[in-house]
Amino acid sequence: QVQLVESGGGVVQIGGSLRLSCTVSGRPFSFNYVAWFRQAGKEREFVAAVNRAGDTTDFGAAVKGRFTISRDGAKKTVDLQMDNLEPDDTAVYYCAGTFSGGSMSDEIVYTYWGQGTQVTVTA
Fold this sequence. Notes:
mainly beta, 4-stranded antiparallel β-sheet, single chain
């Protein structure tokens, strides 16, 4: 059984940084894509994704240039480095994985989800 567990959330001031980590367990780390989404209201928003090889990434427009994503096959983790945080980055951040293809930014392709970790950006 595949499990994804997020960690690293917390409270940070405007302009600060946080690093989220998604740890995958239960099967060999062979997701085609691993992504981060966030939810502050009703809708979930795409944040970033990385492919299996780690050589292709995609970012949501709101975070491009401020966030980076990386994966460590040995540690079975996918990290989201968040810099220059803004109040609008406040949300619950979810890690998701898929063995399928399709668009990396499309929520519908992701089958496995973590429970989420809260990120709060304060003045």
